[in-house]
Amino acid sequence: MKHFLTFVLLMFGVASTKAPLTAQEPQDQLLSAMLKARKHAAKGESKITVRFPPRKEPHREAKTLPNIHIRPWLIRKNFKIIKTNPQKIAGRSAHRYELTPNTGSAPRWVFWIDQEWNVPLAFEERQPDGTLTRSARMKKIYKLAQMNRKVPKNRPSLRKKVNKALPGLQYPQGFIPVGLKERPKRGQEITLTDGINKLALIIASKNVKHAPGIVSRKIEQQFIWLVGNLPHKDLRKVLKSVQKVGNIQDD
Amino acid sequence: MNETDLNNIFRQATATTPADQGAAKRFLDHHRSRRKSYRHRLSLVSLILASAAAFTGTTILISHPNALPSSAAYDAYNSIQGDGW
What we know:
The structure holds two protein chains of two kinds. By secondary structure, chain A is of the alpha+beta class. Chain A has five helices and twelve strands. A seven-stranded antiparallel sheet of chain A has the order 2-1-7-6-5-4-3. Chain A has a five-stranded antiparallel sheet with strand order 8-9-10-12-11. Chain A is elongated. The N and C termini of chain A lie far apart (about 60 Å). About 5% of the residues of chain A have low confidence. Chain B contains three helices and no strands. Chain B is rod-shaped.
C-alpha cells in the first residue's frame, strides 16, 4: 500500500509538472517565456539591429537581449501565434513562434525561445511586406542570468481620460492607451500598444518635422504628433479623427 | 563670249532683285519670330520653375513654423520601446 501511494504521488508530481507544458497552446508557451524574461535572461553576446527609427549606426552589440514591454492579454486578443520548426540559436535549441496581427497593418514578430530555459534567445519585428524593422539575437550564450527588469503598469482608467481630452480619437486597430507622461517643456506623451507594438501620441505646443513614421496636425493652438511603425495613411487617419485637444487629467 | 560678256553675267547674278529682297525679308521675319517665341517660352518655363520653388518653400515654412527636429519625435518613440534597444 505504501509503495502504491508513493507511486501515485510520484506520478501526480510528474503529471503536474510535465502535462501542462505539453498541453499548452503556442500562445501560452510564448507568453510564459515572455513573462519569465522579466526576471531571467540568457547572458553572453548579442547583436541588436534597429532600422526604425533610422539611426546613424543601426547595429550594436550587448550582453543580453533588450527588454520588451508586453501586455499578455492584448497579445492574446490581437495576434495569431503559431509555432514552427525548432531552430538553433547560438548553438542552443529554440522553439520558433510567429506573431501575426489579426487585423490592421501593425508589424509582425518572430520569437525564438530556448527549449530548456524558456527565455527568448532572439526576436525580430518586421513590416507586413517583410522589411526588417528591428531584431536582437544572441550570438554567444554563457549562462542564464537573473534580471530585475521593469514591468509596465496597467492603467485601466487611462483610456477614459484620453478619450475625454481628445474627443473623437479613433485608435489604430487593436491599440489602446497604456502609458502617460508629462513632457519636459509642456505637453504630454501617451503610449499606445496592441500588446507588443507601440506608438507615441504626443501633445505639444510646437510642430515637429515630418519624417518616416511621423505625422502631426495642428488643432487650435496645440499640435498632436503620432510616431510609429505604421503606414502613414493609418497614422494620419488617427490624427484626423481628433476633434479637440485638451490636457489629460491624470491622478 | 568675251570678258565683257562674262562680267555682265556675273553682275546680273550678284545684283539683288526685288524677289531676293522679299525672300530675305521673309526669312528674317520668320527667324526673328522664332527667336522671340523661344525667349517667351524660356521666360515662361523659368517663371513656372521659380513659382514652384517659391510655393514649395512657402509650404514647408507654413507647415513647419518653428517645427522641432524629427529626432524629438523619434526620441519619444524610442523611450517607450523598452530598455536595451
